[in-house]
Structure formats: C-alpha cells, structure tokens
Design a protein that fits this description.
This protein is of the alpha/beta class. It has helices spanning 23-32, 47-54, 88-97, 136-150, 180-189, 201-220; strands spanning 3-11, 37-43, 59-68, 71-76, 101-104, 125-130, 153-157, 169-175, 192-196. The chain is built from 6 helices and 9 strands; from the N terminus they run E-H-E-H-E-E-H-E-E-H-E-E-H-E-H. Strand 6, helix 4 (136-150) and strand 7 form a beta-alpha-beta unit. It is globular.
C-alpha cells in the first residue's frame, strides 16, 4: 500500500541570496496550498534545508540547486554538499554518491542556467513543470519530450523565491510512507506526476517590488 504525497519540489528560502521566503513563510504557504511536503533547494547551499527540517514537523525534503558548468541541477536527499562548477555528468555522479536524486530543473527556459542539450539519461528525473518558467508552454512541451526520449521520471516545482508563489507547481508522489527516503525512491521509480501552471504575472511583479524594498531598506542602514 502507498500514500499520496503532494510536494513542491523546488523552493528557495532566505538561505538563497535572491529569495524572500523565510522558513515561517514556507510552512504557512505550503500548508495553505494543500501540500504535505516541500523540498528546500537553495542555490549551492544545503545546510539551511536540514536546519529547517529539524525545526518543524512538516515534511521537508532537504536538497539544493547545484550550479553545474552545464546548467542548474536540483539534488534531493543528498547527505553532503555538492560543489558547483563541475560538468552535468560529474555533478550527477556526485549527487548519486551522496545518496541523492538528480533532477534536470528548468532545462528549456530563457534567462536561467538551463541544461538544454546537456539533459541526458544519467538524470533520475526532469522538471517538466517549472511554474516560473518562461516561455511556460514551450518549456513544458520540450521537457515532456526529453522525459520520453531519455525515459526519465517527470516532476514539478514552482522555483519559488517569493512566499505566495509556493505550490503553483507540485508533484504527486505515490510513496510507501511519508519519509524523505520513500519520496526519493518513488521519484526514481517513476511513481510521480507533475502538476500546476504558470505563476500569475502579478505575483512576479510583487516579488520584484518586495526585492526593491529590501534593497532600499538595506542601503538605508549603511
């Protein structure tokens, strides 16, 4: 028997320099969106995810978004920090050695570190739905095609950097139990499906306004 887990598998907190999401915000909006798990995937930082996981009963999937030389890769359930700057293939090897799941995130978008031709069968999964991807429809289509071509599991995440964005992209996972290990196992086995839609433009605008306010406040104290 399995249980269904609804999880946003791509969320950045304030452990990422460009994110406005505090741990408190994360929990509030994840629950508000009806999620029962959330992956914390800060840019090249792992310790924040484990700290947040220890401080709450909500199911946090520790991870990080690794800046490989070929594009960004989400590493879930890794037990140690994955260094940036290596090739995609070498990064995947290091993720697997650290006990993790390697996900090709937003591989076909503009304005981000996308993998494009570096997506390969070494990955465990591909982020088919990235709710902040541009252009959204085309990125979904190309990611679906790549998932079929390389026989990869399909997942979804928001890539949220602003609290109300959380949950616009989410993955339904058929896991044996509500643990991080069971979720990782289910993703690799393909017992998961991507869901969601593009984050509304007004939330992206609100994010930029909030960032400007934060910068203004920061400089006013210098």
């Amino acid at each position: 028997m399995t249980i269904k887990i609804s999880a946003d598998l791509h969320v950045h907190t304030t452990y990422s320099k460009d994110s406005l999401i505090t741990p408190k915000d994360l929990l509030y909006y994840a629950k508000k969106r009806g999620l029962n798990a959330c992956a914390v995937t800060d840019h090249d930082v792992l310790e924040g995810a484990y700290k947040i996981a220890k401080e709450t009963d909500f199911l946090i999937i520790p991870g990080m978004e690794v800046s490989s030389a070929d594009g960004h890769i989400v590493a879930l359930n890794v037990k140690e920090h994955i260094p940036k700057g290596f090739s995609a293939v070498e990064t995947i090897k290091r993720i697997h050695k650290a006990g993790g799941v390697a996900i090709a995130c937003h591989p076909y978008v503009y304005f981000k570190g996308c993998l494009r031709e570096n997506v390969c069968s070494d990955f465990d999964a591909i982020e088919v739905v990235n709710a902040r991807a541009f252009p959204f429809g085309l990125s979904v289509k190309k990611a679906q095609e790549a998932a079929q071509r390389f026989n990869l599991s399909q997942v979804a995440g928001t890539d949220a950097h602003y609290p109300p964005q959380i949950g616009y992209g989410y993955t339904e996972i058929e896991a044996r139990d509500a643990t991080v290990e069971a979720i990782a196992e289910a993703i690799v086995a393909g017992r998961c499906s991507p869901h969601g839609h593009s984050v509304p433009a007004f939330l992206n605008i609100a994010q930029q306004i909030a960032r400007l306010k934060r910068m203004t406040k920061k400089f006013s104290h210098l």
